[in-house]
Write a structure and sequence with these properties.
14% of the residues are buried. By secondary structure, this protein is α+β, with helices and mostly antiparallel strands. The protein has helices at residues 27-39, 73-83, 85-88, and strands spanning 2-8, 13-19, 43-50, 58-65, 93-99. β3 (43-50) and β4 (58-65) form a beta hairpin. It is globular, with a radius of gyration of 17 Å. The chain has one domain: BolA-like (GMP Synthetase, Chain A, domain 3, 2-Layer Sandwich), CATH 3.30.300.90. A three-stranded mixed beta sheet has the order 3-4-5, with helices on one face. The protein contains three helices and five strands.
Length: 103
């Protein structure tokens, strides 16, 4: 993570904001991504974003996998919940978006 400092000249307000490079991820993002890639080896896309500001309390997951084929959305989400059973215990919330690859 890096810090960005901006001075608004007219109002003389100093803004300090924290930014994160898209190339790197938080430890939680990396861990959850690894788990999902192991549990869903046919996944063509796995994206995990810490939407809690970096504290690891809430994540958004986007996963596209053949394993979801012919399964209802509820079943797909249950599969994710089962894969992350231990990690979910430490979370405040989780947003899950699943899909099947289009050929």
């Amino acid at each position: 993570m890096s810090w960005t400092v901006r001075l608004l000249r007219k109002s003389r307000i100093l803004l300090l904001s924290q930014t994160r490079s898209l190339a790197s991820g938080t430890a939680g993002e990396i861990k959850i991504t690894q788990i999902l890639k192991e549990k869903f080896p046919l996944a063509s896309s796995v994206k995990v974003v810490d939407i809690s500001g970096g504290c690891g309390e809430m994540y958004e997951i986007h996963i596209e996998s053949e394993e979801f084929k012919k399964k209802k959305i509820v079943q797909q989400h249950q599969m994710i919940n089962q894969a992350l059973e231990n990690e979910i215990k430490e979370m405040h919330g989780l947003r899950i978006f699943t899909s099947v690859p289009k050929h």
